[in-house]
Amino acid sequence: MISLGYTNDEIATRILMTATVNNLKRMRWLKLCWLVIAFAGVQIMYTTAAKARAHEEGAGDEGEVETILTPANKNAEFDKNAKYTFEVKNGTNTPQEGKVSYTVANGMGKIFHRDSIKVKIPKNSTEKYNFEIPGDGAGFYKVNFMINVTEYDDTTRRVFGVHPEKIEAKRGKPADFDAFWDNVKLELAKVKPKFKVTAMPKLDKDNRHVYLFEMQSLGDMTIRGWLTVPISKSPNKKFAVLLGLPGYQGKPGANDGY
């Protein structure tokens, strides 16, 4: 046995101390490894959760269903039957299935014809449907197109004319008709109209805004009427204008039909 100048007890003590130090180093290394593994695990969990949230948010941001109604004649004036193309854009990830229907009414609001077709629009696609709508002789008609599918319901209202130049008044024209109205227009030109439009939010319903409009007329009389405007997400979307007059097709108050 080789002697290093230490007693057996000292040698044993030094061996134990060396082993303890090595164990401490290994424990520190193991702790460091566990910290690295734990940190990596947290990162993976966070990344997975973030991807899941992004997927959920992306699913909520899918497109919408939109419709476009286009007349064969840009002025919606026809010789006999009105012709329209009803376009449905399905921007969702869900197939849309249901029906597209329409009703036609005369100037008094009486429906005299209706029809419908079944439709199925695949996800993220566009379908077009052509309609030929009968009139009832020369005149103007109201047509309502309705779409009712899986995730979307809407109504589009339009007015079309059939040979409007052939519409004849049931009463004859008085001899002084033109002279009378020429004089009235001259007098009216001297009156300041003082146009005023007031929003009536309490009357807003059925996807439309309601406004009260006023103007001054002859004899200091105030003329009042109601204006209803469809609510649309598209600021450039155009709508047909329908004028309802008292005693013909208008009703007191904001008309619920437009």
TrEMBL record:
Classification via Gene3D superfamilies: alpha/beta hydrolase
Stated name of the protein: Acetyl xylan esterase domain-containing protein
Key words, A-Z: Membrane, Transmembrane, Transmembrane helix
Pfam family, one: AXE1
Signal peptide range in chain numbering: none
InterPro entries hit by this protein: AB_hydrolase_fold, AXE1_dom
Residues that span the membrane, as ranges: 29-46
Positions of the Acetyl xylan esterase domain: 169-253
Residues in coiled coil: none
